Amino acid sequence: MNYDHSFHAGSFSDVLKHSVLAACCTALNQKEKPYRVIDAFAGFGSYDLQSEAAIRCPEWQDGIAALENVLCPAALQPFFSPYFAAIAALNANGGQRYYPGSPAVARALARPQDRITLLEANPKFIPQLKHNMRADKRVSILQADAWKALAGLLPPPEKRGLVLIDAPFETENEHARTVDLLHACYKKWQAGTIIAWLPLKSAVQEANMLHQLRTWPKRPEVLYMKLQPHGYGYLGSPLAGGECGGEAAKRRQWRVFSERTPELAKAGESNQSYIGETEGGILNRKKENPSPALRAPSPAHPSPDGLRRAQQRGEGKLPASALIILNPPYVLVQNATPALEWLAATLPATAPMAQRWVCTNL
User: Residue 262's closest CA among 334, 332, 346, 322?
Assistant: First the structure.
């Protein structure tokens, strides 16, 4: 395994992934009983955004750096404050030089009675991971291949907690392997919250992944969150060419798929799809209507800085960032759409696109 997350630390994908992780840990903290966080692909644990790797590939500029000195809406402060607290814990002198990976986020939010298990297959990463965990007695580090070892660790002795699957995606079949591992973990631990992060480079790839998830004979409550970058994502763009092209390329889009959400269940419409548009900061919900009368908001133009950085990277396509969360805490279900909306409106790589959201069942 040659993947090194130092090149991607603090990116918009990390902001999404780690803010969700922090919210889940905070929800677990609401009960006194101890819990365990298991991180399947731990990496280095935390990262220096002034390192050579971060300077060569400054994805953090369109990610965490874009949130610095930005006031989070009051309604979302309880959701994002644990994430910001984890960042502050690594930067005693202020600023954002050091960025917490998922192990550091979990460590910052865990209580004395909680435990953290970190799996990392690359032996070269283990010394730095141990250093970054500061010999914390709550943390155990295993040099192990998560594809083979993770399910065997479930359920944990505490019977409460979460699993994070954040694979490096070095091979073409890792999307299918991730959903398979997600299923294996769920079969072993049906009470736990299980989070899987996936990069999406094509609509076909996403459709195949969701179809695989739908084939499970028994599914828990599932929350699916996606943040689509502007200008080089697979929905189509002047850089990538994309599959949809046209005006779809100019929209900021995100999706929240949720089964049996309390909001829809109360309305007795758990199988309905909804589409909403924001105008003047007010979210207007309406039933999805295939009529041409339902139009997306007017598209905006790309951010020059976001496009310039994409061109400098020479990537052409930056994947969308997706999370599959099994047994999500209520606070996450409740805040998923407004949180994604704020991130998409704030991060420069996504800010140029018009505001649109979708909430539907898997």
Answer: 334
Catalytic residue among 145, 166, 180, 305, which? 166
Which among 270, 235, 275 has a CA at the least distance from the CA of 255?
Answer: 275
pLDDT at 308 over 70: no
CB of 212 within 8 A of CB of 338?
no
Rounded distance, CA 212 to CA 196, Å?
Answer: 14
- Residue 361 pLDDT more than 70? no
Give the three-class secondary structure for 120.
strand
Tell me the pLDDT band of 307, cut-offs 50, 70 and 90. Answer: very low
Please give the angle made by the CA atoms of 304, 226 and 269, to the nearest 5 degrees.
135
| 114 part of the active site | no
Residue type, 291: S
Least confident of 41-55, 110-124, 135-149, 343-357: 343-357
46 close to 131: Cβ distance less than 8 angstroms: no
DSSP string, 161-227: EEEEE-----STTHHHHHHHHHHHHHHH-TTSEEEEEEEE--HHHHHHHHHHHHT-SS---EEEEEE
Is 310 a residue whose pLDDT tops 50? Answer: no
pTM reported for the whole predicted model: 0.77
Amino acid at 109: L
Residue 327 pairs in a beta bridge with none
pLDDT tens digit sequence for 5-24: 777 788 888 999 999 999 99
What number of CA atoms fall less than 13 Å from residue 111's CA on the CB side? 13
* Cα 228 from chain centroid (whole Å): 11
Structure tokens at 95: 């600023």
Contacts of 306 (CB under 8 A, 6+ apart): 62, 230, 231, 348, 349, 350, 351, 352
- Residue range 249-262, pLDDT digits in tens: 333 333 344 433 33
